[in-house]
Write a structure and sequence with these properties.
The chain contains 22 helices and 26 strands. By secondary structure, the chain is of the alpha+beta class. The strands form five sheets. A six-stranded antiparallel β-sheet has the order 3-2-1-6-5-4. Strands 8-7-11-10-9 form a five-stranded antiparallel β-sheet, with helices on both faces. A five-stranded antiparallel β-sheet has the order 13-12-16-15-14, with helices on both faces. Strand 14 and strand 15 form a beta hairpin. Helix 1 crosses helix 5 and helix 19 packs across helix 20.
């Protein structure tokens, strides 16, 4: 009887169903407890005494018997639950095939099992095999064929294989973690084959191995083997590296370390890569307590099918552990890899795997080509982007095994780096090759391929050309056998000679030499041409354009075994700069000695004046809630001081006086006038007047009490209690306020420069500062340029000041470093930060 014979049949004619065949009657129930279905009631093993041999009549014996009974009940419950999962899967298939409800499907399953004389669990396994027809089905069929050929075997053993494999599959798919998968594989599929332990390894992106689940090993063994670093040779590592199953008859004979080796040193091992779509997610390792002989093909097929089941399970749990749903983890990892490729200085390709209809890796799609990409065949980026790797570089399989390396990295996650690999592209069926250094690495489900084209001859020639240009060196070679003379372009430039005029023979060097150097050149030529020895000489070269260059020539002869002169090769170097430098140094050496004492005295006076510019206290004023920083950069002239000043002092009113100024001119007179104005401003500020009034008084000081000094200045008073800043300007650039990452100049108040005319009134303004605000006051030496307007210079200052810095000191250093000023002027900066 088949499902087709049931009432309400809705099966398709092109998919026939087959029940377990019986030869002499209905097959009996499987002999293993793991094959028991939920309708059966397997009796727990009776424990008559403790494991240690204690009688069951003693309290310890009764307790041990209770523990054994409960353990047996738990195992039976797990087996029943796994069997129910398989039956539920078969019921779901019946619902789809018969277009009925779950209740009717359960009734039909029970009726078919009773009619065929098999258990519901065996029938469920057979139904799934008929529908799915995957590798588990093939393994069960092979095992059944092998059992049928063995006269000593019985038919229930064949049915048991299908039940075990399908029960293991349903249990693994329902497992919450790889540990549950290991338990299910051992109990349902591997222990009946004689295995005593199983380990599920997860392959990392760096080639490491992590123990995700294990069963059948002693306590503590899993913790000791939790992580295997890259490069450590183990049984699982061999399978991962070779990408082939590793069958070991005796672990002791092989000598490889692995989990559980100390407890079963003579036992056999099998390690099978667990991969899907060309990528190996991990390794399934199985342990036998005794040496493992060669297994029949049916058992090998079962092991391979279990490894594929383990791979699908690891893939599912890997996706779940990523913390996102759908394909977003893949898209996120791919986007990260694209960003990484665009940040590289070498050509890079981002490759994504392409699988065929059977789920096998067929090729890699070039998903992205970075901006540094240079195709070895000269093709544009658009011609390569989006193509398959073997389409763009079909020779990658035959030459240098590039495709195999990419495939291996994608499968195992272990990076690859190779030098001097050949990259070949076909352009109009013409192979164009380049030698490159290649790096391959995997990121998620994608592969990053990086190469650096190597052209050693061109690189060395380019390096030599640059070295000759920088050293002003010209090379030559004169062949006396063929009369051929070779000059490089740099030597023609040294001679001031057109290349069309041709090179000059070495014997005619006297014709281009200063008459006073004729003896030196004669001695040089005699040594090289007559005595056949290397020589060098320094002389003055007279060019056709009337320019005289100081040249140093080095040459060596090339002779044969008979000491016959074959050629002369050497180099010319222009040493004019060094010569004139030596002349200048010699001419000024006496002058420097005569003026050394005068320079020391001038430097001492300049240092005293520079110290007078700075505030009296070396440290900024200590004001609660306010951080102050100052900078002074002298002009790059022989005078180290100028007329710029800054000042920051706490007044008796607890307000802070902040000022910067710039006296016109440089030198001692400007510095002296600056000291007068700065100290005068300090004294006037004690009166408690506002900034505008202080500048008005300071203008009269500059006009009447100095020698007609003119200056610009900014005067500001800051009240820490209210955080209010009042300020005024006298012809000076406005301060810059930095607030919340944005910088802007304060309003351009009206105010004439100091000392121009007497009795001037100045405009005053105030601004309330917020916490973390920064105020910058500076002199024009920070921004003034000869080729730019002041508006452009201020705009650059504002943009530079807005750059985020961790401290006020670093902000001022940043301003000085990136200042675009090019005038010979001092620079003063004073800045406050509200805390």
């Amino acid at each position: 009887m088949s499902i087709r014979d049931l009432p309400g049949d809705a099966t398709r004619d092109d998919e026939p169903w087959r029940l377990p065949a019986t030869a002499d009657g209905p097959p009996s129930a499987p002999s293993t407890a793991h094959a028991a279905g939920p309708s059966e009631d397997p009796a727990p093993a009776a424990a008559s005494g403790a494991r240690g041999g204690a009688p069951a009549t003693t309290p310890v014996g009764r307790l041990a018997a209770t523990v054994e009974r409960l353990r047996a009940e738990v195992q039976a419950a797990h087996a029943a639950a796994d069997g129910r999962a398989l039956i539920e899967l078969a019921k779901g298939m019946l619902v789809e095939r018969l277009s009925c409800g779950p209740t009717e499907a359960a009734r039909q399953l029970a009726a078919l099992a009773d009619q065929a004389g098999v258990t519901p669990l065996e029938l469920a396994a057979d139904i799934v095999n008929q529908v799915v027809r995957d590798r588990l089905t093939e393994a069960a069929v092979d095992f059944a064929t092998a059992v049928g050929a063995d006269a000593r075997a019985t038919a229930p053993e064949a049915a048991s294989a299908a039940v075990r494999l399908r029960t293991a599959e349903s249990s693994a798919l329902a497992a919450e973690d790889p540990q549950a998968v290991a338990d299910s594989l051992l109990e349902h599929a591997l222990r009946p084959l004689g295995a005593s332990g199983v380990a599920v390894w997860v392959a990392g992106a760096d080639g490491s191995l992590t123990l995700a689940g294990s069963a059948g090993f002693p306590t503590g063994e899993a913790e000791r083997w939790r992580y295997v670093p890259p490069g450590v040779a183990t049984v699982a590592r061999c399978a991962l590296t070779e990408r082939e199953p590793e069958w070991i008859e005796s672990l002791a004979a092989r000598g490889l370390p692995s989990i559980g080796r100390t407890h079963h040193p003579e036992g056999g091992r099998v390690a099978v890569p667990a991969g899907v779509g060309g990528r190996i997610h991990g390794v399934l390792e199985i342990c036998w307590p005794t040496p493992l002989p060669a297994q029949p093909p049916a058992v090998v097929r079962q092991i391979d099918a279990l490894a594929e089941l383990c791979a699908h399970t690891l893939e599912i749990h890997s996706d779940a552990a990523s913390g996102s749903s759908g394909n977003s983890p893949t898209r996120s990892g791919l986007a990260e890899l694209v960003d990484l490729a665009d940040g590289l200085y070498d050509p890079a390709l981002v490759l994504v795997p392409q699988v065929d209809a059977d789920g096998h890796l067929a090729d890699f799609r070039i998903h992205h080509v970075n901006h540094r990409f240079r195709d070895p065949a000269g093709r544009p980026r658009s011609a390569v982007n989006g193509a398959l790797l073997l389409e763009a570089y079909p020779m990658a399989v035959d030459q240098s095994d590039l495709f195999q390396h990419v495939e291996r990295v994608y499968a195992t996650g272990e990076p690859f780096r190779g030098s001097r690999m050949t990259l070949t592209a076909l352009v109009d069926q013409v192979p164009l090759s380049s030698v490159a250094e290649v790096s391959i690495m995997r990121h998620g489900d994608s592969v990053l391929l990086i190469w650096r084209i190597e052209d050693e001859a061109a690189r060395l020639a380019n390096l030599l050309q640059h070295a000759q240009r920088l050293g002003r060196i010209g090379g030559f070679e004169e062949n006396f056998v063929t009369a051929e003379i070779t000059w490089n372009s740099q030597l023609f430039a040294l001679y001031g000679r057109d290349e069309a005029a041709g090179p000059v023979p070495v014997e005619q060097l006297r014709d281009h030499t200063h008459p006073d150097d004729a003896v030196v050149i004669g001695r040089f030529l005699r040594t090289v041409l007559h005595h056949r020895k290397p020589a060098s000489a320094a002389f003055r070269l007279r060019r056709r354009d009337g320019v005289t260059r100081h040249i140093r020539v080095v040459a060596e002869p090339v002779v044969d075994i008979d000491d016959t002169l074959l050629a002369v090769r050497g180099a010319y170097q222009d040493v004019s700069a060094q010569h004139w430098t030596e002349v200048a140094l010699a001419a000024t050496r006496d002058q420097l000695a005569q003026t050394e004492q005068e320079s020391a005295e001038r430097n001492r006076l300049a240092l005293q004046l520079q110290q007078a510019i700075m505030p009296v206290t070396a440290a900024p004023p200590d004001v609660p809630g306010l951080r102050t920083a100052v900078r002074y950069r002298p002009a790059e002239t022989e005078n180290l001081v100028g007329g710029d000043w800054y000042d920051a002092v706490v007044l008796p009113s607890k307000q802070v006086l902040l000022s910067v100024g710039d006296v016109a001119g440089h030198g001692i007179e400007a510095a002296t006038s600056m000291v007068v104005l700065r100290n005068a401003l300090r004294g006037l500020a004690v009166t408690g007047a506002g900034p505008a009034q202080l500048l008005s008084w300071l203008n009269n000081v500059a006009h009447h009490l100095t020698n007609s000094v003119t200056a610009t200045a900014i005067c500001a008073l800051y009240d820490p209690s209210s955080r209010v800043l009042r300020w005024a300007r006298a012809g000076h650039l406005p301060p810059v306020l930095v607030r919340e990452g944005q910088a802007a100049t304060l309003p351009m108040l009206k105010g004439l420069l100091l000392g121009a005319v007497p009795d001037v009134s100045y405009e005053e303004a105030e601004v309330r500062l917020d916490i973390a605000d920064t105020l910058l006051m500076y002199t024009d030496g920070l921004v003034e340029r000869r080729d730019r307007s002041m508006e452009e210079s201020l705009h650059h200052l504002v943009m530079t000041a807005a750059t985020s810095r961790t401290s006020l000191e670093q902000r001022l250093d940043h301003l000085l470093t990136y200042s675009r000023s090019d005038t010979d002027d001092d620079t003063c900066i004073i800045s406050i930060e509200v805390m």
